[in-house]
Amino acid sequence: MTIYRLAVRHAQLMLFATLAAFMFVITIDKWMGHSTWAFAVAVLLLILVNVRIRYFNCPHCGKNLFFRGAFMVPWPNKTCGNCGADLDAGG
């Protein structure tokens, strides 16, 4: 599996985790009233799930697939923005 395909799976996992965290906070707020701990737990879990993002780098130059210049975006680059390598080659 190519680095791009793995990065796409990570982006999909993050989408699911974000929706799950949102639903978790809404559910706890509905049952127990406004709760900052529910929000804190959701944020902590999202951070833990997203730790893997630092491993999705171009195999040629090391640039992260999720960064466009100084900005991080939710979807990975299919072509490296630094060296121009096709990150989905062979996939």
Q: What would you say about this model in short?
A:
The protein is mainly α and 91 residues long. It has 2 helices and 2 strands, in the order ααββ.
Protein described:
- The protein is mostly helical.
- The protein is 49% helix and 4% strand.
- The protein has 2 helices and 2 strands.
- It has helices spanning 3-32, 36-50, and strands at 67-68, 71-72.
- Strands 1-2 form a two-stranded antiparallel ribbon.
- Strand 1 and strand 2 form a beta hairpin.
- Helix 1 runs antiparallel to helix 2 (36-50).
- The longest helix is centred in the first third of the chain and has 30 residues, at 3-32.
- 13% of the residues are buried.
Primary descriptors:
2 helices; mainly alpha; 4% strand; two-stranded antiparallel sheet; 91 residues
Spatial sequence of strands, sheet with the most strands: 1-2
Work out the strand percent: under 5%
Number of helices: 2
Uncertain segments: none
Order of helices and strands: HHEE
Please give the oligomerization state of what you see: single chain
Secondary structure layout:
Elements: H1 3-32, H2 36-50, E1 67-68, E2 71-72
Antiparallel strand pairs: 1-2
Helix pairs in contact: 1-2
